[in-house]
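pasting input
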Amino acid sequence: MAEVKVKVQPPDADPVEIENRIIELCHQFPHGITDQVIQNEMPHIEAQQRAVAINRLLSMGQLDLLRSNTGLLYRIKDSQNAGPVSFFLSKMKGSDNQEKLVYQIIEDAGNKGIWSRDIRYKSNLPLTEINKILKNLESKKLIKAVKSVAASKKKVYMLYNLQPDRSVTGGAWYSDQDFESEFVEVLNQQCFKFLQTKAETARESKQNPMIQRNSSFASSHEVWKYICELGISKVELSMEDIETILNTLIYDGKVEMTIIAAKEGTVGSVDGHMKLYRAVNPIIPPTGLVRAPCGLCPVFDDCHEGGEISPSNCIYMTEWLEF
Amino acid sequence: MTQAEIKLCSLLLQEHFGEIVEKIGVHLIRTGSQPLRVIAHDTGTSLDQVKKALCVLIQHNLVMYQVHKRGVVEYEAQCSRVLRMLRYPRYIYTAKTLYSDTGELIVEELLLNGKMTMSAVVKKVADRLTETMEDGKTMDYAEVSNTFVRLADTHFVQRCPWVPATENSDPGPPPPAPILVISEKDMYLVPKLSLIGKGKRRRSSDEDAAGEPKAKRPKHSTDNKEPIPDDGIYWQANLDRFHQHFRDQAIVSAVANRMDQTSSEIVRTMLRMSEITTPSAAPFTQPLSSNEIFRSLPVGYNISKQVLDQYLTLLADDPLEFVGKSGDSGGGMYVINLHKALGSLATATLESVVQERFGSRCARIFRLVLQKKHLEQKQVEDFAMIPAKEAKDMLYKMLSGNFISLQEIPKTPDHAPSRTFYLYTVNILSAARMLLHRCYKSIANLIERRQFETKENKRLLEKSQRVEAIIASMQATGAEEAQLQEIEEMITAPERQQLETLKRNVNKLDASEIQVDETIFLLESYIESTMKRQ
């Protein structure tokens, strides 16, 4: 009987087969596999064939090449967590590495966005290139430019579908880069009215002074709840926002604040203390100087006897005397 | 002395004492202390007139003299004392509220005459009061003396320094100018006088007094020959005590505005108890125990001890910091923080001026920078919640008005503007000084306007005075109704209208001077208190 020498060919010498096996391996180890693992799995494949297969997978965008401290890692890029990048790469295969780089930088900036000069520093690309790339990316609707509220000429770039951070848009007080003064004014007045009525009811209760004073105080949490229930704000306001409004009332001299130590569990306490606010009256009536026309006169420094503007022919005084 | 102060002093001296005194006074204020001959030479007035003017000024405590070496006597004017003349109406009004009409007239006489003996004051006041009383009633000297003694006890009037009696007769020539001394304990010592008598009316046509004058006349003639019992003991009004009173009033009303009536009464009691014991320039009053306060509360206030304690605790905890707790003995020792109170009042004055002049948003920025001490432009906008453009505008307006100042903090040794921090800050002392200067100029303007208005209508005023004199003399001689009416019609209706307007304007300007003076008082007290602390 003649022995047929059967050359056992390795079953997956076919490059496609190799790739598929590698992909299956990657699926098994979603965190990434090293070259060693592949080698163990398919010991019969030569290094050359392995390298070719891996390169092909990489260029097709199905594998991710990562470096770890042990060596190189290959990770599968499946459509769920690849997200826009695979979409992007599938759209523009073979496009600039530069564009990819720029895109990567913008993605890293998260929702704070990044300025074009910073992109230039990080990528070391010349300005003209950067501008071209940014225009390209914008037209492809991959990134967007958001105007910063701090410097209105400065534009920061971020990924298209990200929500800009508060520091860029200014938070609850800004809508489209405009400071909402009327909104702040309305809130200001409402808070003040609330504190005023509270103080009034406390004063009329006529109990002993300690209770009277303590009941005229309102914590920042109470005011916050009142404003939320009032529903005058379309934007959700946090307690810090209300505290900034109450601070402006303090600077108006209409409200005073004390901080008391509160137990951790009580409502509205932050780090063991609570801020209490109370409406107060000014300590002196408008002072004497402003009741005379000279106190408010805009041309006070030019006024002297015998000159164009003098007390004898002062029109402000004449008007004031006729009052 | 700033120009504004000198201008104001000159206006006041002219109004109260006339041209010559004004010339001498202003010259002294401008040039400091000078001897007699130099004054006469520089102002070009005769020696005689200079002497008379100096007499007037010294009598009113506006000029002091000093003997230098080599026997030269130099005279120095006190500018601040001249400015006090604005406050005379307020002093008189205070005396009226505390000691009713008698006190009011005593203080008025003392202020108008500078220095007087007690007997002279009593006599004059009694005469004046008797005139205003109903027919047949007269004012007893004893009552007036009592009020005088009470004024001296509460330190509202004080004795003037006098020449000490030398025991051994000095053989040498008398010194060129007498050296006046006064000791602390003698300042309020009332001499034992037995002033008997009643006030006299000017017109001696009283039927009831008919019986009296005969008995009185011989007595009066003998009185004139007897030496006045308290000759050489002169009294003057103690302005510092009045200032203390105003300061207490301001503090009490501030507490009443911030808290309630009862708290302000408690503070008033505390201040009253420390009136005599605390020197006027002290930053804190003496500590008072809660028991003492409870005992000294006014009779009408029935609050229990616990309620008082609660009020005191509330006062001590208040952010205003007017009252502080200094110990726990005797139920809790409390002091009033005078320096802090004056500071708060001065700050409130500044804030009020900023608010009225620039608007309430500017006032918000001003208070913000005041509280946070130093702020950058961006931080100001964030904290005050005011749009950037408006905030910038307001800050620059206040900066040019000198209420706010800039502090530069350079980042690099070359102070390049792009690499420097610019912080806004408020310096209360300098802002108070600036405002004070403005007050002086404002009052000078108001006085000038008042004089101008009066001068404009001089002709009309003279006419009305003549008419009044005619009517009075005709009434005395018993003229008929028709004749009186005829005379009155000499002043036509529009002229009457003009007179009315003039009177109203002059009153308004006068009242406004007093109001600005209130601001001056607060600012001056604060500046004085701060300078003493340094």
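fyi Confidence is low (pLDDT under 50) at residues 79-84 of chain A.
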